[in-house]
Specification:
The protein contains 8 helices and 11 strands. The chain has helices at residues 11-31, 98-109, 124-127, 194-203, 215-223, 234-244, 275-287, 290-298, and strands spanning 74-78, 117-121, 137-138, 152-160, 163-168, 187-190, 210-212, 229-233, 248-254, 263-269, 307-308.
């Protein structure tokens, strides 16, 4: 037997129902649209992806619903001093420099305007050490590693890293073209960094490397002739030779010895509820070309150097 059909609604009732349905649908779509704040730093805006899986600026990852340290604010950590080309004029909040621009681009994806971003000083090693964090995420050239993942969360990589050797032009290694040329060198690097890991694991010099608490101390040692050279990431190497040590040169970059590509990632507290949304924001910025554009804008001076093998 066929089911009994209910009586058809009258035309006025049907028309009203259609109108209400259309209004509700429009409101729902509007509520899920990405934020469109414009950053005063000039950061390129990211186009909407059309899906909540790839666009962090949705109702589930918007500023109003994120459990940040301070309601309505996004707290971003980085070290002090904040050096170029990652930051400009030692002022992370000005939106200038690659990492400052990336931080504001991520904030925008999450629905935070420039005035809602608060900067917090965080020493490099404190960013990924055990313990409760005083930031929502930290951006400070922290390389992603399995060891660090034991104590913190990481976003996907926002920059592919290459390590490089910097030496003064009168240094014994200034003309080095191979790893063998570095074997007897006194090299230096900052403690807790993949730069130091590269010295001990790739270069493997005969002499114990000099270890510094901060990168500016390594640069000072280079200036004073206390080391033959220092190892830093490639953009920092070009910044040092261009702005800090006038008689220094980039000797060459160091191969990763066949390992996976080293990447900088945003650091979050272990198990942070923000990790999925921050990760989605970084993924979107890479997919839509924003990261590539910012890299071209702020790191264009870091041209390729010869690989020392």
């Amino acid at each position: 037997m066929s089911p009994v059909k209910p009586p058809s609604p009258s035309r006025p009732v049907l028309a009203a129902a259609v109108l209400l349905l259309g209004t509700a649908l429009t409101a729902a779509l509007t509520g899920c649209s990405p934020q469109s704040d414009t950053s005063s730093s000039g950061t390129p805006s990211a186009p909407a992806s059309g899906t909540s899986a790839t666009n962090a600026a949705t109702s589930s990852c918007g500023a109003a619903s994120l459990p940040t340290r301070t309601a309505g604010k996004l707290t971003v950590g980085t070290d002090n001093p904040a050096y170029g080309p990652w930051f400009s004029d030692d002022k992370p909040a000005n939106g200038k420099g690659y990492e400052s621009a990336v931080a504001y681009a991520v904030a925008k994806q999450l629905g935070f305007g420039p005035g809602q971003v608060v900067w917090q000083t965080v020493p490099f090693n404190s960013a990924f050490s055990p313990g409760v964090k005083n930031f929502d995420f930290d951006i400070n050239q922290v390389s992603i590693s399995d060891e660090r993942r034991k104590t913190v969360d990481f976003s996907p990589g926002y920059y592919d890293v290459r390590q490089a050797v910097v030496a003064r032009k009168g240094s014994p290694i200034a003309g080095a073209t191979t790893l063998a040329d570095l074997k007897q060198a006194k090299l230096g690097a900052q403690v807790g960094t993949t730069s130091l890991d590269t010295v001990t694991g790739v270069v493997k010099p005969a002499r114990q490397p000099a270890v510094f608490q901060r990168n500016d101390l390594a640069v000072a040692a280079l200036k004073n002739g206390q080391v033959d050279g220092i190892v830093v990431d490639l953009p920092t190497a070009f910044y040092i030779t261009g702005a800090q040590v006038q008689d220094a040169k980039v000797v060459g970059q160091l191969d990763s010895a066949g390992g996976p590509t080293e990447q900088f990632g945003l650091v979050l507290d272990k198990g942070s509820k923000l990790t999925p949304c921050v990760s989605a924001a970084v993924t979107q910025l890479r997919a839509d070309g924003t990261l590539a554009g910012l890299e071209k804008q702020w790191l264009s001076d870091a041209v390729d150097a010869p690989v020392l093998k």
